[in-house]
Structures are given as structure tokens and as C-alpha cells.
What does this fold into?
Amino acid sequence: MSREVKRAVFPVAGLGTRMLPMTRAVSKEMLPVADRPLVQYAVEEAVAAGITELVFVTDRSGPALKAHFGRLAELAGKTEIGPGGERLDAARALVPAEVRLVVVPQGRPLGLGHAVWCAREAVGDAPFAVVLPDDLMVPGCLADLVEVFRSQRAAGVVAVEEVPHHDTARYGIVDVGGAAGPVSPIVSLVEKPAPEDAPSNLAVVGRYVFDASIMGILESTRPGAGGEIQLTDAIAGLAASGAVYASHFRGERHDCGSRTGWLRATVALALAGAPRGDPFPRELESLLEGWRSRAGYDR
Ligand code: G1P
It folds into this structure.
């Protein structure tokens, strides 16, 4: 079976209720972070990892996604100023011509595992990636996962990072049976354990690569934590029958599924992209000074 990973599934059917009222008419993945919608970071990371088919599982944002990534005829003749001040054709498509965009419905919100399973026909029997755009990774790590998948002849690879122990109930947590190296075989996984039940503080973050056998496992995965069909439970099944690896992410992750994380990402990425002389960092300093003096903070 080919080890080439050409398809990526983006489960984006969530209603974004933690981000209301911003997400009433604009879905969460289309919210801007600095100068582009959240989903664009995930798509750029996937394309950089060699993905040529983007499979979006969504019930409401198909038209917006197609419009955003395609060539926008109404912008023909207009110019966009790029991050480095360069002049760009505003009508251009944001993904290379060979990249295909597919939209599949989820129908009922039965959980992340169910959302991935909804992409089974689009994925077929080839290996595929799963990318959760809420986790904005700087730098992107999908290319590393694809390489681990290939070189280890893995059944699955998931990105992990250490989180504070008191936060384990927000994540899938992996047990690598001892000290974690850059790439470690996974012994077991559990979705959102209480800190006292967590096997470690190594959390699954939103990047995965699987061979197609995970689809068969998802088919029979019963609802788990929170009454939802959990991808983590299916990965635990995959780990029982083949080699599943944790790939340690060492960059910076922004959790854009929460309002604070999204605001932080916006500021961090706007600062990172600010060219010399950009007034934004100074504006930010003066906002913080005003906030400190109003709130009675010392420096
Ligand atoms: C999902 C997964 C969880 C993973 C997390 C990463 O949870 O179920 O295993 O750790 O994404 O962001 P969610 O954030 O959708 O609750």
C-alpha cells in the first residue's frame, strides 16, 4: 500500500458556540486571525506537507471555503498588499492549481470521530491526514508527521505536546510508557481524563496521519467521553493492531477554539508579521499601558 499522504480531512462542522456571538453567521474557521481566516493557516500547513486534496467536513461553510480558496473573479484587476509589502494579484487562487477542494456533510454532530468517518468515501483506501484548524501551529508540523508515518511504516502518527497536569480533561492524553522522545510508540490513549486518571500530561494536539484502516475502526466505535464518537478511542483501537507513534511538537500552539486563545493568536501573529516601522506594536504598548493604569497595575 502506498505510504504517500495526499489527502487531508478538516473537520469544521462545529457551531463554534464558545465563540458566540462572533460565530452566528460566520463559522469559526472563517474568523480572521491577524490577516487571514483561521482555516487558511491549516490549509497552508497541509499544502506545505504535500497534500493535494483538501476534504472539509462541514454543513454550513462549504460555499465560503470554496469562495475563499478559489480564484475570485470579482477581484480581477485589483491588487492586494502582501505581508512583506509585495503587490499581489487579489483575484488569484490561494491554493496551487493541482490542489482539489472537496466538501462533505456531517449531518449530525456526533463527535470528532464521526466527522472523520464522514470523509471515508473521499479518502478511499489511501493514507490521510486530519487537521483541526482550531489548533494553530507555529511552525506547522504536518510535514513532520507525514515523514514519521513514511519512515516508521506506521499505522498512525499523532502530534503531542506537554500540557499542565490540571488541563488533561481538555485533551486526548497519550501513554508512551516512559520518557517521551521526539518520536515515541504509543501504548494507550484516553480522551479527556481527569488529572488524577491521566496516564501522563502529553496531550494530543490537532494533527494526525492514519492509514485507511482507522475508518473501519471508527465504523464500530461507540460513543465515549461526553457521549460523542471520539477519534481518540479509534486511535486506541488502531494502536492495538499496529504501530501508532506520538510526534513531539516543539513549536508554539495557539488554541483558537477559545476566545482568549484566538485573541492571543491574533496579537502574536500580527506582531510576528509586523514589518519594520509598523505602528501596531507601539499601539499595543499604549493599549497595555492604559489598561495597567486603569486596572491599578504596577509595571
Ligand atoms: C479534540 C480531540 C482531543 C484533542 C483536541 C486537540 O478535542 O478530541 O483528543 O486533544 O481536539 O485540540 P476538542 O478540542 O474538539 O474538544
The longest strand covers residues 202-210.
